[in-house]
Write a structure and sequence with these properties.
single chain; 279 residues; four-stranded mixed sheet; disordered N terminus
């Protein structure tokens, strides 16, 4: 596991791949003040560089960065398969981190043809798109039909918080989890950005070769891009702790994805393809 704790800030940024920083703070509670040490989740500019050409800069929690590079490359359609990403080199810099990705020449040629400037994208997922045609990428129709049991969602929601180490320490991170059909949380990745957490998870799933008969839970709302990334990974169900957007529901319905929102251990709302979720 990459380093979790660092006290080496540079102008408010990290110079290493540490997910946490410590700060001396004043904490007031029950009418009394105390000097304490607080742990905060980090966000660092991370540049994704393909075959020597910078493509995007994301504000990311600097943990599981190889998973992030692979997942981002897959969910953005830069590579279609993990075998087309030959290698990833992590290079810490004075003002951020560079991820140097060596991809197949055919993928690189296609990337140059449709290259977008995505610098600083942390929220909507469309920042930097140069036209309306680039803004929305509809995923392909999901091929497989997988039926999940309601109990699997309940079990995963119960176990998921126990695995969110960064969230427990900082209270500031999102998580995306890969859940097996029986409700076992098989993989989990965290980040201050919900999209980044999902990209990290998609990369981890691809590396594990374990992308059959499972679904994804996100600790966030279900935006369009969360649906698009999930479907692009070939996953048939996305469960969100919070609400979806209208566009997310329409895209999920179009591509065959079961979209669940407001998920709690005993409650949820199914927004698309309810036939794939049974009691």
């Amino acid at each position: 596991m990459e380093k979790l704790l660092s006290k080496v800030p540079f102008l408010g940024m990290l110079v290493s791949n540490a997910a946490l920083s410590t700060f001396d703070v004043i904490k007031r509670r029950n009418g009394e003040q105390h000097s304490v040490i607080d742990q905060l989740a980090e966000e660092v500019p991370v540049a994704l560089i393909y075959n020597g050409i910078s493509h995007a800069v994301m504000l990311t929690t600097p943990q599981d960065l190889e998973d992030f590079a692979l997942g981002f490359s897959l969910s953005e359609g830069i590579v279609k398969d993990k075998s087309e990403l030959y290698g990833i080199e992590i290079r810490p810099q004075a003002n951020g981190i560079e991820l140097h990705c060596d991809i197949a020449s055919e993928c690189f040629a296609q990337l140059k043809d449709r290259r977008r400037t995505l610098a600083g994208r942390t929220g909507c997922g469309l920042c930097g798109s140069e036209s309306l045609e680039q803004a929305i990428r509809y995923p392909k129709k999901l091929k497989d039909k997988i039926v999940f049991q309601r109990d699997a969602i309940q079990r995963a929601l119960h176990d998921m918080p126990l695995l969110q180490n960064l969230q427990q320490q900082t209270g500031a991170t999102h998580a995306s989890a890969w859940v097996l059909a029986d409700g076992t949380v098989s993989l989990l990745r965290e980040d201050v950005g919900r999209h980044n957490a999902l990209d990290k998870l998609i990369g981890a799933i691809a590396k594990s070769n374990n992308n059959n008969n499972g679904f994804i839970i996100t600790s966030s709302r279900a935006s369009y891009e969360m649906v698009q990334k999930t479907a692009s990974a070939g996953v048939n169900m996305l469960v969100a702790i919070s609400a979806p957007t209208g566009l997310a529901v329409r895209v999920a319905d179009q591509c065959g994805l079961t979209l669940v929102g407001f998920a709690r251990e005993d409650n949820y709302v199914v927004y698309s393809h309810p036939e794939n979720l049974v009691t």
